[in-house]
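Students often ask what a holo structure prediction actually looks like on paper. The answer is less mysterious than it sounds. You provide the chain, you provide the ligand, and the output is a string of discrete structure tokens encoding the 3D arrangement of the protein together with adenosine-2'-monophosphate.
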Amino acid sequence: MGAKHSKVIGNFPFLNDNGTIETIKEAHTLFVLRGLPGSGKSILGKAIKEKYPQSLACASKFPPVADEAETDCDRYAQVDEGLEWGFKEIKNVIVVDDNHLAAKRLDHLTSLARDNDYIVLIVSPKTEWRNDCEKLATQSQWKLTVEQLNSMKQSYQEYIIPYFFGWFLLRRSAQEMRKNAEDFLKQLSEMEVFLKEFVGCVEWHSEEKFNLQEYFQKKPRTLHCTTKFCNYGEVPVCRAYAESKVVEDNYSKAFTLQVVALFVTPRTVGARVLLNKNQELLWPKEQEGDDGGDGKEKADLPFGSRAHITLACAPRVKAVQTGLDLLHILKLEEGKQPTHEVDVEKGQLCCYDEGQWILNLTKPIEVKTLFSGFYPKKTEPITESVGC
Ligand code: 2AM
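The corresponding structure tokens follow.
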């Protein structure tokens, strides 16, 4: 796309950042274009098509309606058919072009993406006139009145805040990470010194001999490193994060995360992520230990220490626990000698009592990700499919 276009529809990493463009070519991404009729979605769609010629575009042929909540099956049947086909064919880039004002329709699309293991990017053109209903009325091919557009604008301006923001692993990186987690658990389950210490710290009700892989049976479906948990806007101050310039500028951008350690506790299995300076910009200032925890772990640890990928949880344990477990281990690492230290092929394995083991990797594992949000609400139950 030429600079002329980007001046009109705005700067986006997926159009202007080479690292992101290369990453998106190997990722599986659903672009959901969102905006008022005439705001520049089709120029944006064209620019995406130019950049990713193999992409699949799905657009509604129906005129826009103010109340999209009246979800009309015919209206979306053809688009959904196209999407299903694209998911089945494993198209790398799928673009769905409609106004996408109604939360219900967005929920449907983002749930489909989740079920098909696609990363969602909800993007709106940044044209100067995108919210100017008088101008849009003269511009839209559908001959909408200013009143109709004003009524649509209300739904559009209901900002879509996701369940959480984070870095989402590309399929191949997620596969590698899962394999690393499996190997890690397998290696531990064959170590006498580990089993002896760990089994005393867990509840194991089965008659069978303790089995580590079976114990950590809850596995997240979408591997990611959460930056900000928002609960769709319910979490205090999340709106400021969601609307911040740094999130706007980095939304859809590719990042390579460095995994520097794997850890296991009686509750969770996780991967510690060491953030670089650019990644730290997206790390919320108030987060360390304050979400889901009692704050006691946050003292004195370097900024961003909680960054991690949840790999598995024990029964009845929620994914949020992984970050708290990591902070706890890092605190112990600072102040205490390990009770066990074992050199293994990939690094040094240390135990800090009460079943807390960390493998500090000699060579970090690099994972490719895109920065985005997790949006679907229609999960049954939500924690089973995305987290633990
Ligand atoms: P995680 O980042 O440790 O995996 C959906 O539940 C995702 O949001 C999970 O991946 C989870 O943890 C994260 N999450 C859930 N509740 C949270 C909270 N209160 N604070 C921070 N992250 C949370």
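The pocket of adenosine-2'-monophosphate is lined by residues 164, 226, 229, 291-292, 310, 319-320, 322-323, 383, 386-387 (CB under 6 Å).
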